[in-house]
Hints:
Nucleoside Triphosphate Pyrophosphohydrolase, alpha+beta, 2 domains, Arc Repressor Mutant, subunit A, homodimer, DNA-binding
Amino acid sequence: MNIQGNLIIFSTDNEERKDVRKLKEKKLQILLDEKNEFPTFQIKDNEYIKRTAEARVEELLKTSKFYIEQLYTWGDPNYYIENKGLTITYLVIINKKNIEFMPKNMKFYDIHIENKENEYVQNIVLSNDYKEIKYKIETIVKRDRENVEYINKLAEKTKITELTAIIIHTGIKRLRNRIENTNIAFSFLDKEFAISELQQIYELILDTKLVSANFRKKIEPMVKKTDKLVKESAYRPSYMYTFNEKFIRNWV
Amino acid sequence: MNIQGNLIIFSTDNEERKDVRKLKEKKLQILLDEKNEFPTFQIKDNEYIKRTAEARVEELLKTSKFYIEQLYTWGDPNYYIENKGLTITYLVIINKKNIEFMPKNMKFYDIHIENKENEYVQNIVLSNDYKEIKYKIETIVKRDRENVEYINKLAEKTKITELTAIIIHTGIKRLRNRIENTNIAFSFLDKEFAISELQQIYELILDTKLVSANFRKKIEPMVKKTDKLVKESAYRPSYMYTFNEKFIRNWV
DNA sequence: GCAAAAGTGTTCGGGCTACACCCATGG
DNA sequence: CCATGGGTGTAGCCCGAACACTTTTGC
Lengths: 252, 252
């Protein structure tokens, strides 16, 4: 049985502050290699797969500080050109500051997901300094390709495989589910952070603009205020907050 | 690589009506073999695993009417005595009326999950006409056995393996997640059903009592009233309802 | 009439939304 | 002074919880 693991690694990037009066803008990113594919790893008998996946992240980025969970196991021969077997995908969230080393053949792509027309259509844009990949994902309910059918209209042109497109789509859906129900948002951030940073994470993942006064109240029970101030911009400094450990939430 | 599939099949049973004035009581059930294990299936290269899992259900129960989704892929050598590899579990929901054949070596066990003390402790009771299996599942947050650690205190006595216990636990959590966010509840029922039947499904899965006046209002948009009446008891007959197809919801 | 479920309506409170408003900062 | 984000308060709205009440049935 041919079986392989791979990793969809999410992170965020802080753009430089162009205007001291404005917030740094964060961007959601994923790590892909030069063929626009995810980092992979081999799975052997008598190994604890989750540990194997973790070890691969550690080897890749030389750090052990990240969040990891199993995303899905893909097993549809139509997804593969050769070696038609299974792929187990793990979803990773990492704070860039914890990355000690960047593999030469890999790059973080900015990823932007626009929800269009209706809830089943998404436009996905991947870009870095060198290239831009755009494609549209359409979910058709009740058809039978892993429960839904995905159409990756621009897949051929962009050299993103259908499976890669589906994994990105599923990864985003999982993030959206988790961010509303668990504390994964904090995995993107430093131990101490400003509320506006947390809000940006929510906005990036959910692709919405939130009203900060309301966001603040909503997440208030999940954070603890410290007495430290961030002073690095031409607006009122923010207090630093930390995650309130009482709000650990697990999920299926 | 040694890899296997298995199935956690959920269904419900209608008890006989003891008192014409009372509702039939439903019970949540799962299918286990004589060793208290789940039905398994083999996975081969070049097969669409979900289809393979479906085919196994069809072969087992001689029907094609059921709900199926991937639950999780288990890969921890500590879970296995021998053949230490991977197990991919699919979760199935079936209406007993659609089962055409019951395999001789398998039985539906009533399953009752009590939430105790706090959200991390569950008492699980499996029973059928011949035996009863009780165990307690404790989830410890932040430890590292598939993200949480499970302690199956009575596993040895009851001959339920640790993996079986974890799959049941995870299956229940998945059902609880799905029932709040999708329309899986309808998979347990006939095409036409009374609101009280639907409510019982919710109560069984969530282990709570719901106020029927409020439940009715909550699920109102998800159902359509027919003009048929159920008259088979000494209380006011109910209209039959059907699922409103506009409320199909998918999930990650 | 009675017990039980079917079904409707009303009240109350908590949480979310929208928005007004003041504060603190560097330029 | 200004623009910008930080932070607080408040009014309105919706949804869910609690519960009262009427209807319908078989016995």
